[in-house]
Each structure stands twice: as C-alpha cells, then as structure tokens.
Amino acid sequence: MNTTVSEKNYSLDELNKETTFGGAGSEKMRDIPRIDLSDFDARKAEIADALWSASTDIGFFQLINHGIPQDMIDDAFEASEAFFSLPEEVKARFPLLSGTNAGWEYKAQVRPSTGTADQKESYQITLPRMAELWPSEAELAGFKTTMLAFERANWELGMRVLSCFALKLGFVEDFFTERHDPESPEYQSTLRLLHYLELVNAKPEDFTSFWRAGAHTDFDCLTLLHQRPGQGGLQLCPGKESSELAWTDVPPLPGVVTCNIGDMLMRWSDDKLQSTLHRVRMPKPEESRGSRYSMAFFCQANKDAIIEGPEKHYAPITAHDYLQQRIAANFAK
Ligand SMILES: O=C(O)CCC(=O)C(=O)O
Ligand SMILES: [Fe+2]
Questions:
Q1: 262 domain residue, yes or no
Q2: pLDDT band at 328 (very low <50, low <70, confident <90, very high)
Q3: Fe2OG dioxygenase domain spans which residues (predicted)?
C-alpha cells in the first residue's frame, strides 16, 4: 500500500482533500452509464438528461456513436506510440515547460495523493504554446497533422457534451463553446498523450509501491479519454461514498470514449456535477506487464473565462488562475 502522503498545505480545498486519497482502498463493481450520441440534434434533450444524470451521480460515463471515426483514433494511437519510441534525446528537445501543459515529461508528475512520481511519460499539446514543441517532419512524419485533426475532433465532441450541460445549467447553448474558443490566444484545452511504462524485471513491491497515475480529480471542465482494449487499469471512486474508498474498474471497451467531469465544471455548476476521483493502478502480477497507452483531451476553459456558477456558490475566478494553482501542485519541482 502506498502511504506516502504529501504534507503540503494547499490553498484550494480540493487539493487538501486530494492528499488523503493515496492508499489502495478496496474494489467494488459499479455500472458506468453508457450514453448513445447518435442522431444528436434530434435527441438532444434526452441525451442531455442522460449526461446530467450520470454526471450528478457517478461523474463518469462512456459515449458510443460519438462521431470520432475509429480510424482517426487508431491513427492517433499509432502516432503517439511512434512519438514515445523516439530517442530520449529527441524527446528532450520538447520539454514540458513549467505551468504550460505543453511538451514532454518523463516521470515528472508527483500527485498530491501519493507523493511519488507517476510511472509514465506524457506529451501535452496545448495549441497556442507549441511553437518549439512539435517534432519535425523528418523526425516524425505526419505526427503534427494527425494530432491537429485529432485535437479538433475531440474539441468538437467535448463542446457537444458541454452544450448539453449549458442547457441544463440555464446558460445559453454555446456558453461553454464560446469559453473554449480555439481561435483565441487564451485557448488552453490540452490533448495529452500518455505512455505508462512497462514493468521490467518487476520485484513484488513494484506492483504495490507505485501508481501508473496516482489518485486525483481532473482540473478541467470535461475529460475525454481514449483507452485501448486490453490496456485497462483505470479505476474511479465516487466522492459521495467517501467514508470508505471503494474503487471500480473502468473497462477499456472498444469504440467508446470515456468521459469524466473535472473540478472546473464542478465549481461552475455550484457542485452539482461531480468531479470524480480516479487513478491508474499498476498491473496485477497475473496481468500483462507491457506498456499502456492512453490519450486524454482536457476541455479547459480559455484563460480569460470567468468561472462563476448560476447560483454563485463560489467567488468568481479566472480559468487561468484556477488552472495555475492546480498545475503548480502537481509539477512542484
Ligand atoms: O490514462 C488514463 O486512463 C487516465 C489518465 C488520467 O486520469 C489523466 O491523465 O488525468
Ligand atoms: Fe485524470
């Protein structure tokens, strides 16, 4: 069990809470709602009800018929694997710069929950900050084109889902779309490619002393996650039952996009929508010890957006200030 808990005192309540969630806990089966987005415009009211119900309860749902072509997802996974296979000295030319959510890092993310580095590397794409951070065509042909198309497809899907939440919250339909405007220099939504390291010559304690990603809630409004069949490990734990932490596997089903609410939207909804704790556990000794790849798109409102719920439960804060506090706590080196 991992009991190394950070003793930092953070200025946001959600971060202080996060320092208490590092242990293994128990496991429990729960249903994760599956929501069909087909015929979206005609079925929008019904879809909005289903999204609202899932998000005010478990905070996670899996979308089917979501409109991102499977070929595009497969191409993006291939490009991601090719990126992480580049020599270390090449990847090191695209370093994650502090506070930017852009660039490559290797075992640099230390979660407040565990106090240990996640067993992963990642490359983050935040469009206005990529000038020096794309590999060249000679280094990785087609990578930038593939990722730009994939980023935009995820943004479109994210905005469709957020438009349903806007209606439910009593905002105009494109309220969140306007505040995630990709044409603005203030844009800060992020596509993150993730590579969880394979276990080599694993010692018994390696299965229990580390996390592929320590328990956390996301900082953003909405996360769209692409997992690969056969590469599981994601687990969630709904906050409403927090007396005992019981974790549920989120299966990496083919063709689905797994979504969860983040803290920014929880705050923006006056805590109606639930930002749910999740983590990626290490493989069990009987499971595959190979690499795990996933891709997450974080819908993070533009820096200049003001987060204030319809009922004004919290003081207004800009999305820039909100995110900076969260990034600082996770990459505090
Ligand atoms: O890789 C996964 O399955 C989850 C990743 C995640 O939770 C994150 O990057 O915030
Ligand atoms: Fe996450």
A1: yes
A2: confident
A3: 186-301
Question: Residue 1 domain-assigned?
Answer: no
- Tell me, in angstroms, the distance from the centre of ligand 2 to residue 2's CA: 19
29: exposed, middle or buried (C-beta count within 10 Å: 0-12, 13-18, 19+)?
exposed
Any domain includes 6: no
Q: Are 257 and 66 in contact (CB under 8 A)?
A: yes
pTM of the model: 0.93
For residue 42, how far is its CA from the centre of ligand 1 (angstroms)? Answer: 32
CATH of the domain at 27: 2.60.120.330
Q: Which atom of ligand 1 is nearest to the CA of 234?
A: 3
Report ipTM (2 d.p.).
Answer: 0.99
Tens digit of each residue's pLDDT (9 = 90 or more) over 111-159: 888 888 989 999 999 999 999 999 999 999 999 999 999 999 999 999 9
Paired sense of beta strands 222-227 and 234-237, if any: unpaired
The response to whether residue 257 sits with its C-beta less than 6 Å from ligand 1 reads: no
Whether residue 260 contacts residue 275, with contact meaning beta carbons closer than 8 Å, is answered with yes
Q: Is residue 64 part of a domain?
A: yes
Could you tell me the distance, in angstroms and rounded to a whole number, from the CA of residue 149 to the centre of ligand 2?
22
Domain that holds residue 306: 13-330
Is the C-beta atom of 278 inside 6 A of ligand 1?
yes
